[in-house]
Every structure is written in C-alpha cells, then in structure tokens.
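Quick sanity check, Cadherin-12:
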Amino acid sequence: KLHSDLDKGVGTVKYTLSGDGAGTVFTIDETTGDIHAIRSLDREEKPFYTLRAQAVDVDTKKPLEPESEFIIKVQDINDNEPKFLDGPYVASVPEMSPVGAYVLQVKATDADDPTYGNSARVVYSILQGQPYFSIDPKTGVIRTALPNMDREVKEQYQVLIQAKDMGGQLGGLAGMTTVNITLTDVNDNPPRFPKSIFHLKVPESSHVGSAIGRIRAVDPDFGKNAEIEYNIVPGDGGNLFDITTDENTQEGVIKLKKPLDFETKKAYTFKVEASNLHLDHRFHSVGPFKDTATVKINVLDMDEPPVFSKPVYTMEVYEDTPVGTIIGAVTAQDLDAGSSSVRYFIDWKNDVDSYFTIDANEGTIATNELLDRESTAQYNFSIIASKVSNPLLTSKVNVIINILDVNEFPPEISVPYETSVCENAKPGQVIQTVTAADKDLSPAGQRFSFRLSPEASNKPNFTVHDYRNNTAGIETRRNGYSRRQQELYFLPVVIEDSSYPVQSSTNTMTIRVCKCDSDGTILSCNVEAIFLPVGLSTGALVAILLCIVILLVIVVLYVALRRQKKKDTLMTSKEDIRDNVIHYDDEGGGEEDTQAFDIGALRNPKVIEDNKIRRDIKPDTLRFQRQRPPVEDNADIRDFINQRLQENDVDPTAPPYDSLATYAYEGNGSVAESLSSIESLTTEADQDYDYLSDWGPRFKILADMFGEESYNPDKVT
C-alpha cells in the first residue's frame, strides 16, 4: 500500500506505478494506493521486482511528491524437487574390491532458495542396490558395501538413488536417478582343463609344421586376464610336437615338428601345461595359476611313396667311357606294412637326361652316350621311384654325376710365342721365361717338363732350362748375335705333362735379334734399321718422316691454289665487258640459227643487201643498219684480241658452240669495222639498242640488258 501525507482522503490525490511488472504482474489502486499481484509469482523465474511510485494532483496532474523507488521480493516456497542433471550414471569397480571402495559420486540440484528454510537442503539415499552398495547421505558418494564381489558370479548392478529436500523430512520433494555399476575383471581365476586326457589321431603323412589338433583350457576371467600360454612338458614324444596359442580362441594348437612314421612308432603321449600370462600378485594365495593335461596321439597308417636311401646321390665316371657302362645305382624302399616293389625312371626334362639310362627294376644308372668333360663337366638330373601297387605314389631324388678328366690334350706354351735377344747377349743369359697350359682338368700336383726337341739340341744358339716348377727359361748359348747374318731364330720346345697317358707337344718359339744398349734395353728390332747410319736414333727418324709429310702437304696445297687461280682468271676474262661475250645457259638452236642471220655478213658486211629482211621473224617496220664511222688502228686492242684468240685455240676446255663464226680481221681496216666499244666516238648514252627487240625472241635477253640499262655518268671512264 502507498500513501502520501498530502492525501486527505477527499480524492484529490492519484497514485501511479511504473517499473518491472507494472501493469502486467502488479497493479495499483489510483485512489487508495493499494498494490495487488494480478498473476502467480515464481521466485525461480524472477526473485524480485524494482518498482517506482508517485502521487500526483488529480486536477493539475502535477506530482505532489518526488517519485519513490521500492523493491518487491518474491518469498520462496518448496515448489521444486531435487534433480540429477547428469543422470543416469555409469560406473565401474574392480571385482573382489574391499568394503568401502569408491565407486561414484552423484549430485542433485534443487532450484529452491538455499538461504531460506530447508527447501534446498538435499539428502541422498539408496532405494535399490543394497546390500551391495551404500551412499553418503550428504555428499552422494557411492561405495561398495560387500567384500569379494565376484564378476564371474554377477557382473552388472543397477542402483536406484533418491535425493530428497527439506532435509529428508516428511513433506519434502524427492528426485531419483539410476547408477549402472559394472564389476571389472581381475585375474582371480587360474585356467583349468575341462578334462585331464585329450586323444588325437594323426595320419603319418601329415606334413611338418601342420596343425594336427587343438586342446583348450577354460579361464572364466576376461580380456588379458584370460590369455593362456600352452607349453609341452618335456618327456616322452614331446620333441616331435610343438604347441602354440590361438589368440582369437585361446586354444592350444598342436603342430608337428618332425615327420611321423607308423612303422617306427604308432603312439605318443606327453603333457601340456596351461598358464596365465598376466598374474595378479594379490591372488597368489589362491594357488598356482596353471593346469596340466595329458595328450595321447595315435599315428594312423597311410599308404606312402617309396623312400630313397639317400637325399642326394653323387657319382663319378671318366669321360669317353663306353656306352652301357654302369656308373652307380639308387635304392628306394616301400616302408609300409604291405611292402610293394618299386620301379625307377628318369625325370625327363631336357636333352641332357638322354646321356644316361636307368634300370627300372634294379635302379642302376648306365651311360647312354659318350661323355666329354670339356663339353659338360657335371650332369644333374632327377630319378623318380613309384610303387607298383600304387603308381601315383612317387618320390624324387637328385643325382649328380661328375665327369672325370682323361688326359687327352697335350700341354702348350702360354703366350707369348715370340721373344727377342740382344745382339750383345752373353752366353747363359735368360731371355724369356715360359709356362704351360693344359686343356685337361689337371689334378693337384701335376707337373710339366720342358726340353729342346732332338733336332734343335745340337745347334749352338739357344737352350731350354727346366726349373722343375712348371716353368722354364730360354737361355743363350753363344756370345753375341748379328741381325745382318740372321734376324729370326725358331726354337722348338717340347712340353710333357705328368698325367696318364703322358701327352706332349712341340711348340716353336720365334726369337728376334734386336739392337740393344749396354744395359740390355732394346733400341730397335726392325730390319730396315740395319741399313740406317750409325747413331741415328728413333726420335730422329720420326722427325725426318714428319718433315717429309709436311713438305708433301705444302706441295699439294700450292698446286691446288694454282689451279684455282687459273680458273678464276679464265672466268674473269670471260666476264670482261670489253669482250662483249654473253654466255647463255640454254642450248643452241642448231640449223635454225643459220636461218636467223647470214654468216657471210660477218665475213663481209658489204654483201648485205640494203633492204634485206630477216628470215626468222616478220618485222613490223624495216630498220636499216647503222653505219659506224671507222676507227683508227689500235695496236693494243689488236694484240689483246690475238692473245685471247690464241689462248682459246690451245685451251682444251673451251666449249664448242653451235655455230662457228670466223673473222678474217677485226679492228681498224676491217670491212666489219671494230666490234669493240672502246674508243668509240659515241658513249653508251648515245647508243640505241631498241633494234635488238626486233630480232626476235632469241635476242630478248640482250634487248632487256641494253634496252633497260640507265645511263650513269659516274661509270664512264
């Protein structure tokens, strides 16, 4: 309620209200000033409202007092129950945990005012899950309530938790949530075999490394706590088998380490131990975490292929052994209870196998062709044995035959076959050491002997000294040799080996006499050097030859340049403007040229008729030959022309032309007058060459050259 001291109760004062919720949540009586709530209030939505009130004059509408501000607080009541905002919860705790082991802490939230009364004071309790777990009523911490809870007995627990406000008193509001608790595994159980003896049946044909059976120990634990390791206890038959763990099924897989043979042993018995890999020291007192079982394996008899007595057969035979000679035998047996006979044959793969044959019943191997060690030193092929009772059961073995060498090749001198001796050699001087080579496969310790052939032993030039270590020395037997008398000596050397039968050969060595200095260094071995002046060294000979080559090159270049210069001079003379000679690339017209003009006119121009028309073309207009004034006799021009005529007469390269024009005389005094433009009374500018175009297509090139050329005074000399 609002009241102003100026309000006398006569209705002259009006009260107004503004601020939070004015007109929507709160209203005021304008006359009495009473404030009323027009709807329900929720403290959790808005805990207080700030309002402003004022008293004004009804008539003047003016404030009677300053505006005053006041706050309306919403008083809390217990209208909200506690809520688990994070629920439902999931937790875990190891099995076999002691009492009071921490599991989880839950928390409930009450929206009521915690500062007013007990509306927000929450108390926790367990409605479901006892007697396994307990909860602290104030903190909400859940703990184990029973010892040694076993995961293998019960793994999952669902606990129902209640949170109640008003301190848990009667009338308080409550909220609930669930907590799903899982017992995690610990290694508290050893592996156990479900039975003490396992029986397995294994065929004797089982391959080494193959799995022949499985056994399994049961461990109720989970995960890595259930991982089992299997081991074979040393004892009877255990060395033939091995056992491993299948990681997916935790089974023990028994594998074969060695082949089984029913005829040798029909049954095996051994023990297998199963133990955990990951142990928990807290449970050692429970007992050993391992178990033992007995495995009995019965070997089943199978029809097996024959078995060779050796894994590989190695034989030897001499080369060139006669065909059909037995060199060895292979043996295979059927070890099954009902023994069957065996047949042998060669596994044909290539032509090499055809060198041998095998007896199908006895297994003896014999040669089928002559063998040559130098061609093939070793043969490697396979022999197959099959049972007569079951030919599909076969076995294979490798046979290696080494071809032994027979001494069939004589030894020979190793290179070189040629040596030299100095002219100033002394008696007993070693000029060459020789060795021998033999194409045969020489046995260890084979020796070669060297000697002169009988026909050379009486000659006083050279001898052979056998050092008895498979080498020999060629020694001189006289004092000095002369190239002028004999340049080459041929020395026959006989070499024998120590194999049987003994083989020998005569090898001829060539000994060249050379000129040497006092130290024995060879200076020259060429026969031409005998006739050279004394004291002329090899370097001097090379220098002389080099000078001769250079002189020959200079002469060749000089001749080439002279020919080129002569050719250039001839071309220049042909292109001289004073000759008035024009070269054509096209072929002449033959007899047609004689129809174009009268050759006789060149010899005597006076025979030309005044109005004679050309016979090769039909001229449009008649032109008269221009009369040129005679020129004086010029000796230089005459001599020049005569010289050129003489050069062309004796030049074999001058080409013959289609028409032959002869000139009785050219120059001053000639009826045709001078053909040269030199010393002409007129210049090129005064010349009119238009008449050339009237002479037909054969003179078109001349007409184009002289008719279109413009006069240039600078070119006139």
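Posting the structure with no commentary besides this: DSSP finds five helices and 37 strands in the chain.
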